[in-house]
Amino acid sequence: MALTKYNYNSFDLTTAASKGLSFNSDADGFETSSGGSMTLIKTLTASSSATLSFVNGSSDVVLDSTYPIYLFKFISIHPATNGADLKVGFRDGSTAYDATKTTTYFSAYHNEAGDTSGLAYDDGEDLAQSANFQNICKSIGNGNDESGSGFLYLFNPSSTTFVKHFISNAASYEANDYILNIYTAGYCNVTAAIDGVQFSMNTGNIDAGTIKLYGIKDS
Amino acid sequence: MALNKLKFNSLNVTPTAGKAVGFNSNADGLEATLEGNAMVFIKKLTASSSATLSFVNGTSDVVLDSTYKEYMFTFSSMHPATDGAHFQVGFRDGGTDYDAVKTSSFWRAQHEESGSTAKIGYDTDFHLTQSTSFQTIIGSESADNDQASSGYLHLFDPASTTFVKHYIAVVSNSNLNDYARVGYTAGYCNTTTAIDAVQFKMSSGNIDAGTITLYGIN
């Protein structure tokens, strides 16, 4: 017996380009619906990992002109070494994550004892035309329940005209029992495309944690 | 011959309001559990020597009303025609002018490429006090060929006729004087009239290039 195949025009609704098929608000008819604009591209899970790398074209990673904005979320990053910093580097051509960067870095802080708090620029963590990795989550404790979490936006990485901006905000359970609310922003001062992003600790491994990469559509 | 269209109850699945049809976890049946993503694209505007870029509810497919409780604008590689221009936003609360009264705060961090200056500070030049002026969300843009600014702005509950309308913006730029500078702006349109349009411009000269995209957040 031949199987009946239904086509795009078999359904009782007006079709719309690139839309999905949903039930309407009364659940008594069909309507078209939109997919979301934020697409999960890749999840990497640390397990005593020296680095976590997102490389365009490798392991299903997309990091090119497909999306104008990319969003990384780093969740419960737990260092092997007490007080280690989570850092990020950007690849602009070769295999090294050494794109030149100028950045700002400041944080709000408050300790569990409640006797120290404030807001300060940290000129030990910003970069001035440097190929070094950028600290985005400082001095994370390695107690069993301690970690750091946050996000990083990378704008227009495939541009070959403009510098590439990034903006990050992170919360660190600091090694001396502070909360650090860390703000990092800057740019890769290159007109070459950024096609890879790597995360690592400044010392020791990433013992555990998850980093997710999303693409944000603009059409 | 009339085409026999499949109705909502033609599929072997229990209909659920507002849900999409997908395959189940065993890929051996249908289910009605899929939802659209919480972040929905609405409109992208691309500058090309543009004096302004405007998002007006009900115009050119723009939605900026009670459909969403939160809207997000993203800015990618905004490039001014004029060196030193400030990137600015205005909100429309009735009429045709983008002159909603605003009170806001503005502070920024900056770091020179030479490494000689690094600081954070509140900037009274760019905060507003019950002002109808446009809000600067990053100052002193550079018109050099490779320099630009990128960031985002959240606008909360613009359709409210009860509360003021809050906005929060973060924008990073490569500054006129070769600084990395990031501006943090937060404030509110001090009006209980709905905000139905948002306009972006440079304080001086055109927006030479760049894209601004509007999303609704469910």
For the largest sheet of chain A, list the strands in their spatial order.
3-14-5-10-11-12-7-8
Give the helix level of chain A as a range of percent.
under 10%
Percent range for helical residues of chain B? under 10%
SSE run of chain A = EEEEEEEEEEEEEE
> Can you tell me the CATH topology of chain B?
Jelly Rolls
The geometry of chain A reads as: globular
Major sheet attributes of chain B: 8 strands, antiparallel
Count of domain modules of chain B:
1
Q: What is the count of helical runs of chain B?
A: 0
Structure explained in plain terms:
The complex is a heterodimer of chains A (219) and B (218). With 219 residues, chain A is mostly beta strands. Chain A is built from no helices and 14 strands. Chain A has strands spanning 20-23, 30-33, 38-49, 51-55, 69-79, 84-91, 101-111, 117-121, 134-140, 148-155, 164-173, 178-188, 196-201, 206-216. An 8-stranded antiparallel sheet of chain A has the order 3-14-5-10-11-12-7-8, with no helix packed on it. In chain A, strands 4-13-6-9 form a 4-stranded antiparallel sheet, with no helix packed on it. A two-stranded antiparallel ribbon of chain A has the order 1-2. In chain A, strand 7 (101-111) and strand 8 form a beta hairpin. The model of chain A has no long low-confidence stretch (mean pLDDT 93). Chain B has 218 residues and is mostly beta strands. Chain B is built from no helices and 14 strands. Chain B has strands spanning 20-23, 30-34, 39-50, 52-56, 70-80, 87-92, 102-112, 118-122, 135-138, 149-156, 165-174, 179-189, 197-202, 207-217. Chain B has an 8-stranded antiparallel sheet, with no helix packed on it. Chain B has a 4-stranded antiparallel sheet with strand order 4-13-6-9, with no helix packed on it. In chain B, strands 1-2 form a two-stranded antiparallel ribbon. Classes of the chains: A mainly beta (219), B mainly beta (218).
